[in-house]
């Protein structure tokens, strides 16, 4: 259990948060199936990315990790070797689903397992479309891990996604790379496109049509190892953007943050809520990036719906926290995907906000939140429930408490942000 710090004098300073989780996973995967060496700088050493790293070592890829620098000795699209034990996906949905797509076309069998939370998450959403490519994935009766991926020759397919999910899309792209002709994958709504961007950098032909939804993948590319600099993770920066906005006397600069438009929903939310936010784009020849300045803000309420969700999916707990400190009623709808994350993030966010005295109504696909100027603590023990993003949301909420709050199951934060409390301390500048 962790005693959470408060910030009576606000948060100040400049911070570069760690590398992006989604991009770190993809750099490991695409580097491993490329020929020659790939160098990754500013790699995220969160537990999720370490699960991906270990899985590729288990599949016979030599990978060195020193600090946040990774060297991969790529084995090419046909060089992976069967592991002699089940691959442990840990807590990581991204690792599991993307690897299912990649392993579906490999000439061997793989067994995938994960922690208790991951074993509850839906995997049919990947297994079903992969079967259209000729893939074979056996899941538990509930459609979850443990899974057996029985590698098969894959066929070119045109597939319309049934869920707005970058993980499912990316799994199908990785399968399509191994198919016997060009495939087309059509999304419901645009989702993060890091897989497409990185595959192009490594030499694959992956085209996104003008509609922003239709992706054509040419098979059997010769991927060439590259040098990748991972930008800072906007999903991690978001905790301090929200902290800066809701904590009195704050002014924070977050540098080199990834500003890929499929990820910047939290910036639009902050702008719509009239937060004091300045976005300064920086030149970049890869993923867009920039610096973000946030200051203590008077927040207006917000309403967001289904079309807004993909670009802010992992920040929705923070949107709820912003709403809890805005002047008036906010509504989040169309966010039923939250129910199948590390926890049911609608239920867990509602539970934690109620401990702070917030009036919040739970909806099947979101919540209605009544903003308030200060917390009215009902329960001093907050809980991550084993969900990294819930743990960090609670730590940010506690900054403005005038009583001491604690956090149970704080270790979950290491999944995506191992240095979170050290970075928070830096911005607290020695306050208790
Ligand atoms: O592709 C990715 O890296 C991710 C996609 C999202 O999941 P879904 O594809 O399930 O929406 C997101 O919630 C997750 O944290 C990372
Ligand atoms: C949902 C998340 O990750 P994953 O699906 O990879 O477990 C997340 O990081 O919030």
Automatic annotation (TrEMBL):
Gene Ontology biological-process annotations: amino acid biosynthetic process; aromatic amino acid family biosynthetic process; chorismate biosynthetic process
GO molecular function, one term: 3-phosphoshikimate 1-carboxyvinyltransferase activity
Keywords: Amino-acid biosynthesis, Aromatic amino acid biosynthesis, Cytoplasm, Transferase
Residues at the catalytic site: 314
Transmembrane segments: none
One CC-aspect GO term: cytoplasm
Subcellular location(s) per record: Cytoplasm
Enzyme Commission number(s) from the entry: 2.5.1.19
Primary location recorded for the protein, binned into one broad class: cytoplasm
Residues reported to bind phosphoenolpyruvate: 21, 93, 121, 167, 345, 389
Protein role: Catalyzes the transfer of the enolpyruvyl moiety of phosphoenolpyruvate (PEP) to the 5-hydroxyl of shikimate-3-phosphate (S3P) to produce enolpyruvyl shikimate-3-phosphate and inorganic phosphate.
Family: Belongs to the EPSP synthase family.
Subunit structure and binding partners: Monomer.
NCBIfam families for this protein: aroA
The name this protein goes by in its record: 3-phosphoshikimate 1-carboxyvinyltransferase
Gene responsible for this protein: aroA
């Amino acid at each position: 259990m962790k005693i959470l710090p408060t910030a009576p004098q606000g948060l100040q300073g400049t911070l570069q948060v760690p590398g992006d989780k989604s991009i770190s996973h993809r750099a490991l995967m695409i580097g491993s199936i490329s020929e020659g060496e790939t160098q990754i700088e500013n790699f995220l050493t969160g537990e999720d990315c370490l699960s991906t790293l270990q899985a590729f070592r288990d599949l016979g890829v030599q990978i060195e990790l020193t600090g946040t620098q990774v060297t991969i000795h790529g084995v090419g699209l046909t060089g992976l070797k069967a592991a002699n034990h089940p691959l442990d996906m840990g807590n990581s949905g991204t690792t599991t689903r993307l690897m299912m797509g990649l392993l579906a076309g490999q000439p061997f069998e793989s067994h995938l397992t994960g922690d208790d939370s991951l074993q509850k998450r839906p995997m049919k959403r990947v297994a079903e479309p992969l079967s259209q490519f000729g893939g074979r994935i056996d899941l538990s009766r509930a459609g979850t891990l443990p899974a057996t991926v029985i590698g098969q020759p894959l066929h070119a397919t045109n597939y319309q996604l049934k869920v707005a999910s970058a993980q499912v899309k990316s799994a199908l792209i990785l399968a399509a790379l191994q198919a016997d002709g060009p495939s087309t994958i059509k999304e419901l709504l645009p989702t993060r496109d890091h897989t497409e961007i990185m595959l192009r950098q490594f030499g694959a032909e992956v085209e996104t049509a003008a509609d922003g939804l239709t992706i054509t993948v040419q098979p059997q590319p010769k991927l060439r190892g590259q040098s990748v600099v991972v930008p800072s993770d906007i999903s991690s920066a978001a905790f301090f953007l929200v902290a800066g906005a809701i904590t009195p006397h704050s002014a924070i600069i977050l540098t080199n943050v990834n500003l890929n438009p499929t990820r910047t929903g939290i910036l639009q939310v902050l702008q719509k809520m009239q937060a004091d936010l300045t976005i300064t784009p920086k030149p970049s020849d890869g993923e867009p990036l920039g610096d973000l300045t946030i200051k203590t803000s008077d927040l207006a309420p917000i309403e967001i719906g289904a079309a807004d969700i993909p670009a802010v999916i992992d920040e929705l707990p923070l949107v709820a926290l912003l709403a809890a400190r805005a002047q008036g009623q906010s509504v989040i709808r169309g966010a039923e995907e939250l129910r199948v994350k590390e926890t049911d993030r609608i239920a867990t966010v509602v539970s934690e906000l109620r401990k702070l005295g917030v009036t919040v109504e739970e909806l099947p696909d979101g919540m209605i939140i009544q903003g308030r100027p200060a917390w009215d603590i009902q329960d001093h023990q907050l809980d991550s429930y084993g969900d990294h993003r819930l743990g960090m949301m609670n730590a940010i909420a506690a900054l403005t408490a005038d009583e001491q709050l604690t956090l149970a199951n704080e270790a979950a934060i290491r999944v995506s942000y191992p240095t979170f409390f050290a970075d928070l301390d830096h911005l607290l500048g020695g306050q208790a």
